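Good morning,

Both structures are done.
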Amino acid sequence: MNTPQTPTPQFDYAEEDEISLLELGTTLGEEKKLIFGLPFVAGIVAIVVSLLLTPIYTAKTTLLPPQSGGGGAAAALASLGGLANLAGISAGGTTADTVVGMLKSRSIKDAVIDRLGLIERYEAEMRQDVYLKLDQLVRVSSDKKSNLITLEVDDEDPAFAAQMANVYFEELQALMTRVAVTEAQQRRQFFEQQFAQAKDELAKAEVALKETQERTGLVELKSQAEATIGAVARLRAEIAQREVQLAAMRTFATAENADYRRVVAELNGLKAELRKLDKGAEGSELGLVSAGNLPEQGLAYVRALREVKYQEAIFEIMAKQFELAKVDEAKDGGNVQQLDAATPPERKSKPKRAMIVVVAVLAAGFLAVLIALLKGAMRNANRDEQQQSRLQAFKRAWGFKA
């Protein structure tokens, strides 16, 4: 005999979902005053608060970082070989990220603070407080595609916001000129230093040559040496002539003879002049350098003159490179360019009253629905003994009063 099987109960899930939705709708309906009232009150409060908030204006300026390119000085630098390594010039141009970093640097912040008197304007006790304030009010960003940099400044005064943005640009130009971040600026700075050094070295060499000329008496080596040698040869020839004349006069005249004594005096004078040239004695009537010291004096003079010529060559090279570097820097721009100068904005950027009201209403509506559901859950728990015991356990677990 077959035992009849007990039929398995079938649950109607659609009916269960329908009941749950009805219960949810009933719960929300019971709290409709809260659901509609709280967002309404929040919206009114948000409108009042937004009207009381101080309007903020945003001034904006657009900047273009310098683009480095090879110019005449770059080509000339390549021809100098080892000087390129000494210059330490890096290849490539200034990136937008570098300019953004400079705009955010403490150097520019300090310049802007001192120039606009921001410590007094923001009533800050320390400069660090102004740094934090600027981080909130000033925004710098770059566009990777266009390579443009945007600088935005917020302030209650639209004219002051525009002024601060333009001051940021001016201080950026000053900083870039000082630190020389572009290749053209690096070349100009390097050759400016080398030009000044070559100028000093040339001046020292010219002073050393002058001292050598005063010490040796040489002004122009070749002509003076030829004149000295010619004078020595002429004196020796005249001395030999007087000696022959005296030898001839001794055959017919005595030492007391007037002509004989005259020739002797002339001979002694010529020998004295020759000794002056040989020994370098001062007071030579011919005004020539010492023939005896001519090799040593000539060597000192040649060395001093060679140093002057060398320093003159270095000076001319550095002067030419310095001029080319200045021309390249002018072509390169040298500094960031301001595409759009900041002007006082006509419309405020903050606060956005419509956004504030919408967010406040939505947040209050969400909170009202959540409170309504919690109140409905509490009522259901009080009617169900099992749910009530769970509610009591929840309160004890969180330390609420039962």
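Second structure follows.
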Amino acid sequence: MLAVTSPGFVVFAALLVGLWYWCAPPHRWQLMLAASALFYLSLDWQGFLILLVDAAVVWLCALQKKRGWFALGLAAALAPLLLLKYYVAAAGGLQAMFGLRLWQPEILQPLGVGYFTLQIVSYLVDAHRGAIPPEKNFARVLCYTSFFLSITQGPFNRYGELMPQLDNPTRWDSRRVWNGAMRCFWGYFKKVVVADRAAVVVSAAFSNPAALDRSQLLLGTVLYSFQLYADFSGYTDIVLGVGEALDLSLPENFRQPFLSATVKELWSRWHISLSRWLKDYVYIPLGGSRCRPWRRDANLIATFLVSGIWHGAGLTYLLWGFLHGAFQALENHLPWRRAITKGWARLVGIAGTFSIFVFTFTIFRASSLSNAAAYFSGILHNSGHDVFSNYWELGLTTRQEQIFLFAGLAILIAGDLLQERGISLRKKIMEAPWPLRWAAYETALLAFLFMGRFLGGGGFLYARY
């Protein structure tokens, strides 16, 4: 098993980095294809067969010039997502509500289906538009589609940006490789110290909102926002760190999103590669912002409804997407939408945007609309203030666990504040004299081993989408 959370992945990535610089540049894309196939097959061999067939059909259709072939390729690209994700959910719901017996395939969802679907769609559309020439070598299209650093959680790559990099004649650079390793370490810190420990409290809060008081429920929903951020951005740091060691420039996915002053700004900082994909392949084709205000608002809402549907077939995702589109449409009509992003007023904007994030992602996290309603009802009506005293009610085993949770959050927030001010700790550590540099390494490693929650942690949250 080569899951990113496993020690085997660290060994796998280290071996790949070594082989990468030993391999001749013209053959590196073949090495990447072999590595990606090994990675995917170790986790989901059935899903890899679906990916293989999907990529082959799209590759053939992209080589043709007629519009009918483009339509066929688009249908083939979207088929795994529509059939194995949404159809199965819809069939199960119809059977539960009306007793209808509909065919449901046994393979419910291939690994990374949401990610390789959007990537192969972007390749097909870019080739159809003439932005890139259709690739004649199927193996290169398969390499792009199965790229292991993006296949489970992104970031979304573009064929014309990724594949040329695999051919670049780069050489070993110890400083660059070490920088990549430090970024990987920061990603694992976010996951093991912050996200996995916050997950315990979040699960306890959402599983039975009626059993907890208002303060505990507020902590639970705020912690879910930080859990999701630490988990998702932690994965991104790991894969971008490996990419940096390979001298691959992969798209950034996060840029201190909780320091956004508007919802529009939030989506330029959160899941950036998905926002870019939605803008280029949904929002702009719908008409973008070069139209009447009502049409622009409708385009925004439609784009985020697509985002909600991409995340899942449940009504919670649909409502979440609608709300994010509606909030951005509303912002376009507020007279103080620019003033709120400057000076001291920006602090008000940051607080308001974070509140919107927490509110909407509570719906996103809930198992159903009724679960979300019960959670909000508990925040409004459940009395009490035991959030800092009765830690065991939140699933934490000791007071030390609670301290580690808040300490990890403080480190995460401090790191984002430094990044926002343009201060790179990695750069400062690399430029420090070697005694200070190694003291920093040892301190960070000891803190990681001491604070990490290494037992009971699950996979990455966005791997399910």
